[in-house]
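Consider a concrete sample entry:
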Amino acid sequence: MHSSFNGDGTIEDRILQARDTVYEDELFHELVREARAIASFGVTTRQNLIQIPASDNLEILLDLVDTDENTSEPEHGISQQGTSIAEGLAHTIRILLAYAHRQNLRRRTQLPLPLTPKTRPVPEHQLIRPALAYIKHMSQVRWLQSLLEDLFGVLQSAGVKPPAYTARIFSTGMQSHSSPTPAVENLVGQFLTPLLSTFNGKILTPRGSFSIAIHTNLSSPPFGTTFEMSFNMPKYPDLESPGKLSHREEVEAAITHLLLLDVVFTISSNSSLKPECDNDPAKRTWEAIYPQHGELLIPTPKPNSEKRKKLKIVLSRHELSLEIYTVRCIDGTGRGNWEMPSYHSMPHTWKPSPISGPPKPPSLMDFVSKVSSS
């Protein structure tokens, strides 16, 4: 933002320059007022500088400088994305200030409120908060997209292909207004409302699905971004939806846990549906004893044997690992008092490969089928 007054030039140029200078000074004054009000977001002010931590790797600096001051900096240190964000933010705060002027004019043309002995506070204009909410919201949306792509990529590398999810960014849409307010003001007013984006998808479990709604609101309490998560897992009716979460670590853990349960159910259901299982006296089907831990059991070929094979699955956004154990169970279904990795059994891992390299390892179901018959 630039502020100066140059005595040279024609009268018309001097009038325009004076108008722009007053406008820029007012704009920065309102920005400082709002910055002090939202100090809890990490926004700091000093002299003619406002420092805003916008997102993970983005920091915004608003500085009031004179037009005659040489502020040129090396262009090699500024990315194209950073330049676009700076230009977009510069246009945004000016549009929002003009919108605030329109709202003030409309309020002053209405009947005044009754007089009171107390002075009514003048709220700060919303100039920084809408732009900051947009940047933070898009940062959370991109993070969630990256998480789902990583998890689905890991599952696809193991030959497990869950259905694709659908995303609706800024799904609130334009609301209809019956008021005579101009359409442009209605459009800008939508930018001041809480932001919402939704992600919906199905899983391999029949009638299983998930829904994630990202809410971002910096205009009124509660401030910040929340993830509202809803899971539908008929196979495990005791699984409760996480509800509203605020931290990325919690969201990642919840989604990973849901997909882990989906993989466990897929293994147990596919092994029990094979025709050869009906002719096997040992009924060698994988039983999900502790699905929340990714653990399944299968009996050994020897009848009346306490030894069983246990399959342990671990899922993360980076890999899917599987390991086989030999356990001796007390009751045949619970955790045993003796457990050790099976002989010649190394953890088998699937990771997404960005490039075509050596032959792909066997799929998860092929590997499980091979272990079941051994």
